[in-house]
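Teaching assistant here, posting this on the class forum so everyone can see the example we discussed in section. The complex has two components, and the goal was to see what a joint structure prediction looks like when all of them are supplied at once.
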Amino acid sequence: DMQMTQSPSSLPASVGDRVTITCRASQIINNYLNWYQQKPGKAPKLLIFSTSNLQSGVPSRFSGSGSGTEFTLTISSLQPEDFATYYCQQSYITPGTFGQGTKLEI
Amino acid sequence: QVQLQESGPGLVRPSQTLSLTCTVSGGSISSGGYYWNWIRQRPGKGLEWIGYIYDIGSTYYNPSLKSRVTVSMDTSKNQFSLKLRSGTAADTAVYFCAGGARRAYLFDFWGPGTLVTVSS
């Protein structure tokens, strides 16, 4: 089974910080790596698809990169509304596995 | 803009079938080219894809749940549904319906989710 491993699990940060979250796949996923943001009590929201493509309406302070099995999500300057949990997810093969999440906290 | 809304019982008895419906608004479920998915999030756990129905009836399920899951579509009501048989406490979760057009396992839009508890 494909495994997706995120690090760190939690990340203390402050408004204005530049933060990076890493996601590692257990096998090559041909850049079919997506990032979602989830706030408490809400559904996840697609931020980035296929490694580096910003979903419509998502602020440009979010960016994604990577290849092979290692990928990153970067937020260039944290805003108060960015404190949430972030999930990576592969859309290369069944069952579209998610990472365990990274909680961005003050 | 397509919007989704889950509905169904919030409490299911053990060994019974969990049944949920997702109502689609702002678009026709029968227009084709969309993957209509069910995803769940168990308490304190991550997200788990359950299955999808594509176009007008092709289905695909998570191998770990395949023996208990059915996803179906009712085009007359613009809805798709989930049935998960033989429920156990391990099926207690928030269940989301989600859709996407670009690729399987890419979830562009989501319903708000509904909590289902399996308990006697």
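For the discussion questions: The longest strand of chain A covers residues 19-25. The two ends of chain A are 34 Å apart (CA to CA). Think about how each of these relates to the inputs above.
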